[in-house]
Structures are given as structure tokens and as C-alpha cells.
Write a structure and sequence with these properties.
The protein is of the alpha/beta class and 316 residues long. The chain is built from twelve helices and eight strands. The radius of gyration is 21 Å and the shape is globular. 41% of the residues are buried.
Amino acid sequence: MILVVYLSVCARLLEKRRCRTKYVILFIPIVLLLTGYQNDVGQVKPVPYANWESNSVKSNGVRIHYWRTGGEGKPVMIMAHGVTDYGLSWASLAEKFQSDYDIIMYDARGHGFSEKPEGPYSLGAHVEDLVGLIKALKIDKSILIGHSMGSGTVALAGATYPDLPRAIIIEDPALAELLKYLTEVNIPEWKKFIAADKALGKQKLMKLARTKRHPGWSDFEYDHWAEAKLLVSLNVVEVIRDEALREPSKIYPKITAPMLILKADADKENRQKHLKVSELLQNGKMVHIDDAAHLVRQDKPAETERQIRIFLDGLK
């Protein structure tokens, strides 16, 4: 309201040439601060998206922001994104399932619109954030979906709290050939890489993704991908210090919930290694998605949706 009044007054003054445009521009950031356009840690608040709820809860000592499609009586599906992404990285997939599920897409600590503490960023901390979110929202037996780091989060949550999930779906977890990138020696370079991305700005990031990193996606996906990179804290890569991220063979056998692993395409040798790990599951299976890279759902959206629906139909 203050912003509206201020601009209205200046508009009138401009007509009388008593308020110069440069002063209007100068004071807009100040007015934005006064009107609450930034939150308690200085981040810009999320812009309303569709008719989805945008809210936050305090979980494990950290403020966790989430988007929620809603729908009373629907089974709940919670989506955990990968490192440097954010909740809306799931938007395209969520739109396909929101008619049947109440979907929650949360920003992990250090990401998106959630709080960005100095630490910790262990996989265990991410698990407790997720558990705290579930408790705060009074959710029972949700379907947990995770990608990359998020796949480690939901898998460890299912192993640590076997009665928590109704089912688990994970997208391209770190197995075999990916494990070589998850070492502490890579952390400084990862931080430099993230900092360089943040310095580019949104439009240049979108162009970079479109022409080099992820050709073939929709502009919708590029927009969310770029925004996530601008909002993330450099400290999030500290998660790779956690041995749990590299030890699925110690986690998967403890998971009792039905589980689907959607794995990126791989050569014959690595496929065999992946399938060997999936044999550790008590009640699960792995599906490789042909011609998909690490971001399986963006690279092959139709096949990803099809495999998830097959799995979910089997739960009914």
C-alpha cells in the first residue's frame, strides 16, 4: 500500500514537474524494503505461482519454504530437489500430477527461498529438515520423490524412519560413475562454478542452459533452472562431505517402503552396476530412461511421467 501511495503521489508531481524520475527510481528499493517485499533474511520473497500456496515452516531450527498445490483428501506427494535447484524445479512434473495429488515442493536449506545458514549441510541435516516439515504440516504417509541430492535425502529418510513414507521415488541417485564427482577435493571448484553462474544474471544463465548445458528444454524449465542458480548459497555443496551420499549400499537395504529408481541412461557396464545396487531393495525396482542425462524428468518428461504413473498405479 505504501508503494502504491508513493507512486501515485509521484505520478501527480511528475505532471507538475516537481518530482524527477530519477528520484522515483532511487526510492523504490527503499519502499520495497518498507513494504515487506523482502523477508527476514534479506531475500526477495517468491512471486505467487499459479494458485499454489507459498509458505514456510520452522523445521530443525531452519526456516523452510515450500510450494503446495493443495487439495483436501488427496494423497500427499513431497518433492526434494537436487543441489543448486529449488522447489519449482519440480513445477512441470507437479502440474501433471496435481489433479490427483496434494504436492509439496520445498526449498532445501541454503536453496531457493529457504533460510541459508552457514551450516550444517550434511545429508542427515536435510533428512531432519524434511521430517520436521512433514511433522509441522501434520502429514501422514506421503509419497517422497527426490532428485540427486534430494534422492539421497528421501532414501536416507526412508531408511532412518521406515514408517514415514508411503512410497519412495528417486531420480538419478549417485551410483557407480557419478561417485567420482562426490569427493571433498571437488568442493572449492564447485563453489567457484556456482559463484560464476550467479554472477551471470538470469538472462545469460538461461541462454547458457539453452545453448550449451541443457539444449532441448522448454523456456519454462530454463526460467526455473536459472532462478534457482541465482538464489542458492555456495555452502550447499558441503553436502558431498557426507559419506551417506556415497553409500547407497548401506541405506537401500533398510528401506521397507515400495521404491522406484529412475536412472539416467548408461552404458552396459554401468547399467549392470546400477542394477546390482537396486537388488538391495526390499521392495523396489530400477528403470533406466534411454537417452536421459542426470536431469531425467527434463530430458525425457513423457517417459518419466509414464514410469511414475505405472509405479503409483501399483500402489493402489
